[in-house]
Amino acid sequence: MNWPLFILLVLLLVTSGSIFFYYRPKQQARTESIYTHALNAMVRGDTRTALSHLRDVVKQDTNHIDAYLQMGDILREEDNADAAIKIHQSLTVRPNLSNEIKREIHKSLALDFEQVNQFAKARREAELVLKLDKKNLWANKFLLTIFEQQRDWDKATQMSKTIQRIKQSQDPSQIARFLVYQGMDKHEKGDHAEAITTFQKAVKIAPEFGLPYLRLGDLYAETRDLVKAIEYWEKFALLSPEDGRRVYSKIESALFDLGRFSEVEKFYKRIMDKDPSNLSALAKLANVLEEKGEHNNALTLVEDALSQNETSVHAHLMKLKLSLHISKPHELSNQIDEIIRLLTSAK
Predict the structure, then answer these.
(1) Dihedrals φ, ψ of 30, to 5°?
(2) 127 within some domain
(3) What's the domain count of the chain?
(4) Whether the predicted model's global pTM rises above the 0.85 cut
């Protein structure tokens, strides 16, 4: 046996083992420590320090994909999406990446492209995420946002249905909303019949959602079918009390044109029965009563509202208006003082 050669081989093995078991683990541990410092800086919002640490990490370990991802994300958040795109795209050619890492890379790229308004590329990256994970909730929500921005209501409707299936939830009003937008586009293109059909489909899907009733009322008003217009407007007002004031004047005008102005009072009473706190309807009803000469009834109506909501500036102003011809100057002055107090205390 060649003992000198054998001893030399043993020494080489011992030296290699020492390097592997002592030097590299320590180097890896140091890299991960720096990466942890970077993450802590990100939590604190100190992106400058985080970037500095991340650059140190990739200098020591060019295979640290997470560090590259975080660097690109920080650059995007600092309005440097072009640099972020370069970093994230460079990761797509790395070999032997797990599907999880690939999803994160394409997600980051989708957000990068969205920031620079390259929506087609953003959409493509989100679709690549879905190829890797069909039920990825983030990608589906992101694509829904893209379709909304592009006014692609057909795809937005389908994406909304997909999201609801993934979440195992139901929100028919969202589907109906996209159908309303489809109908509005059809109306703008002059397809009146298809617009009505689409709005009615929205009503069928979500009967308690107010928006399609508003659009149907507007469409029937355009063709002077005021009876149907009033019917749909009133449904909208009853279902959407906060937005109902959008159709109050329309209903009054339509009833006047039909010679049925006496029904205006009944309409507002139906609204008040459904929503006693509706001050917009209350004001309209008080005006109708005053025009009929029922001044005391109008004032009583407003005072009843004030007893339920003493801090309502709207109700106080209505009372002041109705009191101008019957109250003494000092009483009116007291009312004004109370309104000023409410306005100043609200600031």
Answers:
(1) -65, -40
(2) yes
(3) 1
(4) no
